[in-house]
UniProtKB/TrEMBL annotation:
It comes from Sapientia aquatica. One of its GO terms (cellular component) is cytosol. Residues 198-331 form the Fructose-1-6-bisphosphatase class 1 C-terminal domain. Pfam families: FBPase, FBPase_C. Homotetramer. This is Fructose-1,6-bisphosphatase class 1. InterPro entries: FBPase_C_dom, FBPase_class-1, FBPase_N, FBPtase. The gene is fbp. It catalyses: beta-D-fructose 1,6-bisphosphate + H2O = beta-D-fructose 6-phosphate + phosphate. Residues 5-193 form the Fructose-1-6-bisphosphatase class I N-terminal domain. It is found in: Cytoplasm.
Length: 334
């Protein structure tokens, strides 16, 4: 099969579906180029003096890794000058980032988790970059945090880069999910998987089982049934994977199905969960739904949630449709 580049894919997609105007194409290509730079830095590891802690904390109160900060700066610098953005927001920054006055402003707003899976960085386990694209509200003057608080269903594009044995860029603009592999010799993103689709059933689940004594009953019931395998109500055996980097668990699920769960639990009853809605759960939920899967917070579709805070957390159950619907139904039972 003749392979095409990300640029050719975007140009042909615009011709076919008229859903990638020039400014959005520029945005996606700039983000993809920044992810190439991040991949290069990540790949250097200790040789690039980029491992270890930065001795600073982010808004979540989490100690930042040097690569967290470097990846954030790479994305900010890559996206400031193009004239396609009005503002940006990042897991690593407390407030939104306005485009400097010396540059023109655009109609899009970009949110990202510059490096997801930080706890994996220093032990050479796969990590990634997650991004979400929304439109600036009509007639917006100077962007505020409020302008970012749009439901995930309003996203015009979403995707991630994954820095593993291959470096890949997975993208949706609302017409399915496509995957590009980085050709390191040419420095180009090459389309290697079209229209990724998630099987509606699965025999593989992902959850951090060390938290099981803190789970609420619907999760405990669901997991116990999986563990019972052929001897229990599910009548089949299940396998478990937990990579501790959402990007990597989601990438596996996009390729072979599965269900990923990060539930709220009794450790902190007023905390909705660990993952963030705006730049982790929303972009991943758009990708999962575009690939035929489902994504809820246990009670409702994640893409329907009306955000109240930029860094708000959410419980996540996403992946193979029939499994997500089952565990969600357990939460909704009286
Ligand atoms: P870090 O970026 O702090 O490593 O967290 C990664 C993450 O947000 C998500 O990518 C993982 O699925 C999840 O947290 C892992 O959480 P646990 O370390 O509690 O298993």
């Amino acid at each position: 099969m003749k392979r095409i580049s990300l640029t050719q894919y975007l140009v042909e997609e615009q011709r076919l579906n008229n859903n990638i105007p020039a400014e959005l194409r520029l945005l996606i290509e700039v983000v993809a180029r920044a992810c190439k730079t991040i991949s290069h830095a990540v790949g250097k590891g200790a040789l690039g003096e980029v491992l270890g802690s930065a001795e600073t904390e982010n808004i979540q109160g989490e100690v930042q890794k040097k690569l967290d900060i470097l990846s954030n700066e790479i994305l900010l610098e890559a996206n400031e000058w193009g004239g396609h953005l009005a503002a940006m927001a990042s897991e690593e920054m407390e407030s939104i980032h306005l485009i400097p006055n010396r540059y023109p402003k655009g109609e899009y707003m970009l949110l990202f988790d510059p490096l997801d899976g930080s706890s994996n960085i220093d032990v050479n386990v796969t990590i990634g970059t997650i991004f979400s694209v929304i439109k600036a509200p009509e007639g917006m003057a100077t962007p505020t945090e409020q302008d970012f608080l749009q439901a995930g269903s309003k996203q015009v594009a979403a995707g991630y880069a994954i820095y593993g044995p291959q470096t890949m860029f997975v993208l949706t603009t609302g017409q399915g999910v496509n995957c590009f592999t980085l050709d390191r010799e040419m420095g180009s993103w090459v389309l290697t998987q079209r229209n990724m689709t998630i099987p509606e059933d699965t025999q593989e689940y992902a959850i951090n089982a060390s938290n099981s004594r803190h789970w609420y009953p619907p999760v405990t019931r669901y997991i116990d049934e999986l563990l019972a395998g052929t001897t229990g109500p599910r009548g089949k055996n299940f396998n478990m994977r937990w990579i501790a980097a959402m990007v990597t668990d989601v990438h596996r699920i996009l390729n072979r199905g599965g269900i990923f769960m990060y539930p709220a639990d009794a450790r902190e009853p007023d905390k909705a969960g660990k993952l963030r809605l705006m730049y982790e759960a929303n972009p991943m939920s758009m990708l999962i739904e575009q690939a035929g899967g489902a994504s809820t917070n246990g009670k409702q579709r994640i893409l329907d949630i009306q955000p109240e805070k930029l860094h708000q957390r959410v419980a996540v159950f996403l992946g193979s449709k029939n499994e997500v619907e089952r565990v969600t139904s357990y939460h909704l039972e009286k």
